[in-house]
Amino acid sequence: MKQPFLFPGMLFFLLLHHSAVIAQQSLTNAEKSNTLQLLNYKPQKAKSGKDGSERLVIFKLFKGPKSGTNGKDGKPGPGLRVDISMITIADTGLLRLVITQKEKKSKPDTFYLNPRYGQIKVIADGGDGGNGGRGESDSGSHGRGGKGGTGGQIEVFFDAGSVDYATCKCLVFSNEGGSGGWSGENYGNAAETGIKGPPIYFKDLNSRIILGN
Asked: Model confidence over 149-192: pLDDT tens digits?
């Protein structure tokens, strides 16, 4: 007979606890809102080529010197969708950024920004190319560096409450091409830099363009 009376109380406690956890997480994120936050989605540098292994002279004479292998090309930057809205936490107006990686099924990332004191830079640059491997001594050829990856696509959407911040210097976006890797010859020559990603457009929730570069 007691269970029907306890269950509503337990449910209320669980809901209250869940709300407190969410509020605490928001406050923890909000503590970073006055700082410079670098949100780096740039791929890791590509793998470097292997050096030509050094061998005894007799093997070099019969088989020739070993060459270094080429570095891998950098990966393209990710496609990002950034949804921006204005919220209030502890009587402070904050911009909330929800960032979704289009190529991944992972949960979106959420960040908070105080537009008066903080700054957020979202980076979707192309990955850097790997360095080429060094050739074995006595004329082994050196591997070339990998090309830099192309910058990713960034789409930014503002809701009605945040659209006035589309020109705010507190919001910075980057989709530059990645750096080319160095050749194995004492890092003397770099491969091509990746191509900059497509123009970054700021849009409202109806996909009308507010600003573009």
From this structure: 999 999 999 999 999 999 999 999 999 999 999 988 866 688 99
Q: How many helices (H) and strands (E) are present in the chain, helices listed first? A: 2, 9
Comparing C-alpha atoms, which of 195, 184, 185 is closest to residue 147?
195
Please report, for the chain, the start and end positions of each structural domain, with discontinuous segments joined by +: 1-30, 33-212
Neighbours of 115 (CB within 10 A): 19
What's the order of all strands across the beta sheet hosting 36-40?
A: 36-40, 119-123, 171-174
Of 40, 72, 68, the C-alpha closest to 54 is: 68
147: closest CA among 52, 70, 44, 51? Answer: 70
- Kindly give the pairing relationship between strand 201-204 and strand 154-158: parallel
